[in-house]
């Protein structure tokens, strides 16, 4: 993509570069790092070794808007250095492109053609001969190894070697295999490269220019003009085509056409997307695309440089309107392999030698890595990768487009390989094999049927524009054929890119509604940019279809999305918008106009792309808008410009170093500083920032939280590498600080909002996304500076090393019969739990489960501190520059993680819902009236948000039980009771304690009531509502979930009378809590049982209503609300029999009330009078009858008998207000927990 190109240049090309062998410095071995390579450079035969290449010349010397970076260009033109061949080896020219990304995000493109020239230097040939003599001497020693049969030890040693060890007698054939170069017999060839450095990626045009230049020195006939004329023309006289226009200029042997999209079209993209689909297939491409959108580490792997570049550029182009924000090196030079250790998201391409398979490639970190083996049609994905929305329909739509152009959706890797070997000058595969041979003449059709290879060769030569016949017309036809193929490539590119762009316009059609414009002054917004929310993520996600959430919740957290929204905030009008944003917004506007549905109503219905505009390209190709100046003779001295066939000459620098004095396209008079600022103007007016602030924003705020974007190629000294690693350490610490702060702010919810931070609440999907990103960060930290990688998860590997180390030390202490002063059980007890969970299969999954469990236990910082306290182990596992060996940063990192202890996370319990968990239950009897004489058999039934246990018998003598069952989730209620057997079946229970033995969570279920006939309310069982205990000494003073007055019903009855206004507020708060519960997304709702029966819940609130003004009971006699309700039932049933009231609505309400009362009274459960009242309230809320019953009871004569005149139930105004509040529950579908209504068949 060209979104970040250097707009200071108006010329087609900035530099022409020649790289190759410097005969003056001789052969210098390329000392490549071998940390991730399986073969040593010096173990290979000299012809297979790599040697240092150099930039031999570049023209001009420098341009001010794009300073020449000699080291970077030299590395990327010939990433593996010089290669040598002999006359028996294949020496076909190879084209590849590359990219240089500057620290400000702008890009420069390079296009290189590598070919082989004969070595004429006798010194170089002699040096190669000497290297072979030395190499053959080593191999001769190996050949003279004794021929005795190898023993078992030798066999094992032999199998362990990376290269075969020969044990045979010397033979001529073997010596010839090693002795592959003889100075007297063989011709030596060395690679050379010519390259164009351009501000925009016109890949097809540059390929043609370079091919024709190479052809000029390869053909027996000299070109019409000296080579300097053509290179001068491309450097100084060919402009960039204007937006929406096409340009034709002259190559050595034929015209070259390039065209540039208009400002209303998708950005320029001149690579063949079809090649990526041929190489990988649609399924793999979409998985790779998903990884790129979620900013994972992506490593492309191929033995073809152009494939690496094509796949990388294609994937980033398909991201429109978003842009990759992190390290982007499609071709990673061999000298930069240490950058694979970078603990940041990256998209890199690694060259393969075509021999080693994936298992031999040792990578420093793989926990969050997407590995793409391009040549073998294989992709290795990170764990827990969410599915792209509407994946199947999306694949179907892409496949239809590909098939319409003759491209197989499954990929065609073998076809592509054959084409690569045959195509010579071709840079990328335009079409599949079938269309490569699709020629029109009868002779060609016959050749295609009889000999596919010959037909393909002929088609190939014709597409390069070279005529095989003397007839001029044939060459013309071939040129037309080439243009048609290029047009088809552009058409396919447009179709595929439009399909991808349509996905984003559909998913983000309403994104502008959720953009948060800064409320404070712009300077404050800019200063605190890292801490500000720029998008209402929670509201946006609540509008999305359920299947989209796993992907979208993670995508909204990426830097590319944050930068996209920043661009939206910073632009003032259409003129200020960046090109991608302007085009995307115009498409979103069209979607809104076409869609008749409500704009904010989201559906998961798949909508295909219907708006593909390819006519513009056809028009630009059919009618050329501009023609550049033709190459012409330059002011060169007589004798200059001559060349020797087969050798690309050193050009005349005096004529190529400067351009024409007057050229309307050059625009070189303007200072480079102004051109750079022109590239950044879209960030200016809206914020009214001065220039210094604007520069700072471009450099820093564009890269939120990451301090390094690109590897600097120009200086690879140890000090620079150390400084780069230090930047990594600083970046990781900053990212940790930002992540912990974001997670805490989101989790704290309302309190955070009141303090001026962010949004009201965090959804479960969002929380899970943030925790998953924290796990990824921890993996990157633990992978940084790793000495030897073991397994895919560096964190889990470190934990196992620590566990083994401590166990060995513990064993040593046990043998010495002394206590171990540094017992490590505290840290690795969670490891034991995770290892015992059979559902978790991989190291990465175990590490993430360990992090989640430690967070839930509020021990993450403490565990990691203990893990890192073993300094010997850390030194053994990590290099000196690693993050974990930077003491100050490590302490700050642990301090940030410590802040998670301020909030409650259930990130383990809520994710691993199917695992078996051991629970421990303890029944605590009253200390004063203990259960020592208790004779009945107690039981409990534990319920949680996910499941319940069923009845569990508790041993009477211990009152404890441990059992294992599937994860219950957060615990909500405990049903407890006894069977009323024995002489003394009365039991006063203080509370029930339940502990999750894996997470360590302990729940307290207060009771404080009797269970027994003839005592309290006569209940033999009670439903207790619990609360999670916090590890604090203040537990006894804290209010509990079970209401303190007339509990669930649990606690001892204490008559504390509230004024009527306070009771009204209590009812309102209880109803409000239930309303809020139902306005949350279904997956984010807590326990409704707590809102109904818990502290200050609906049952408690209505209990206060009925207790207010209740006439005092007589001495030694308790009167319960249930007594009043039973008397009212008797009255209603008698009144109904007498038909005293003819009102049909009144009779219907009476029948409902009496039916529920009878059903509850007839239940087999012995839940007591307070328990029956609780059940009636819950059932009335479920069936939306509470407000009817309140109206009935307020008019009932029994109320006048049992309540004082000042009672709330006798105040008509207050009763009407209560009825209106209760009516708000009618719109909600209330589902009751099974423990609340067990035994009632209504």
Automatic annotation (TrEMBL):
Subcellular location: Membrane
SMART domains xrefs: dDENN, DENN, RUN, uDENN
Residue ranges constituting the PLAT domain according to the UniProt record: 917-1025
GO annotation, cellular component aspect: cytosol; membrane; trans-Golgi network
Signal peptide stretch: none
UDENN domain span: 35-578
GO MF annotation list: guanyl-nucleotide exchange factor activity; small GTPase binding
GO biological process, any: retrograde transport, endosome to Golgi
Protein family: Belongs to the RAB6IP1 family.
SUPFAM superfamilies: Lipase/lipooxygenase domain (PLAT/LH2 domain), RUN domain-like
Region feature Disordered, mapped onto this chain: 142-164
Protein name as catalogued: DENN/MADD domain containing 5A
Highest taxon of source: Eukaryota
This protein's record includes keyword Zinc: no
Lineage: Eukaryota, Metazoa, Chordata, Craniata, Vertebrata
Keywords: Guanine-nucleotide releasing factor, Membrane, Phosphoprotein, Repeat
Domain RUN positions: 765-913, 1089-1235
